[in-house]
Specification:
Blueprint (H helix, E strand, L loop, with lengths): L6 E2 L3 E5 L5 H7 L16 H13 L7 E9 L5 E9 L5 E8 L8 H15 L4 E6 L4 H9 L3 E7 L2 E7 L22 E2 L10
Parallel strand pairs: 5-6
Antiparallel strand pairs: 1-2, 2-3, 3-4, 4-5, 5-9, 6-8, 7-8
Helix pairs in contact: 1-2
């Protein structure tokens, strides 16, 4: 894969992450509720800029690729969150994570953005995709299921490992994401950032 490509969904555009995105994303990531399941707290702008500098630079490990996208509503719309994929060290395996700001949740944007990345990964030769989702995070479980991932019995740092095994560059069909009738939607944060060592 090597380079991070611009990706598109029906309503979203995924732009490769740049340090300059911190100015816009600091507000998107400012709600403390986003960190309920992943831990941490809202980053300040300087912290986010430093984090993005490290993420843009990459892992430094030639067997591992970091891909980070900002999710934008349309070509010129606001940033709504981000999606991350780490490929390797086995080039046929990737980890996937998504975060959508509180204001933008409940619209299917996480599912659409993560699906665009998933399809890109599969088309690039990745055959196994993993996401780690907190066992109480119903909204992110819904996104993972809609993408065709299935929960396993593996638990890493308190999060359930969800896996998709695909072949020939296509993901199996998955049921449509169903809204959860619980009143308030839980913040959509898929997992801890998948760029290992990068928080």
């Amino acid at each position: 894969m090597t380079s991070t490509a611009v990706l598109r969904g029906e309503r979203v555009v995924l732009e490769p992450l740049r340090v300059e995105h911190a100015a816009e994303l600091v507000d998107v990531l400012s709600d403390a509720a986003l960190y309920r399941y992943t831990g941490g707290s809202p980053p300040g702008r300087a912290e986010l800029e430093a984090r993005y500098e490290r993420q843009v630079a990459g892992s430094g490990d030639p067997t591992e690729e970091w891909h980070n996208w900002v999710v934008r509503l349309g070509d010129d719309g606001p940033a709504t969150g981000y999606v991350q994929a780490t490929v390797g060290p086995d080039p046929a395996t990737a980890e996937l994570a998504w975060v959508v700001g509180t204001r933008w949740q409940g619209r299917g944007l996480a599912r659409e953005a993560a699906a665009a990345v998933l399809d890109h990964l599969l088309a690039s030769g990745v055959g196994r995709v993993v996401a780690h989702v907190h066992p109480d995070h119903v909204a992110s479980q819904g996104v993972a299921a809609a993408l065709g991932l299935a929960p396993t019995e593996v638990v890493v740092d308190g999060e359930v490992e969800w896996v998709l095994e695909a072949h020939r560059g296509a993901r199996p069909s998955a049921p449509a994401c169903q809204p959860v009738a619980t009143g308030r939607v839980a913040p959509l944060t898929g997992v801890h950032p998948v760029n290992r060592g990068e928080q």
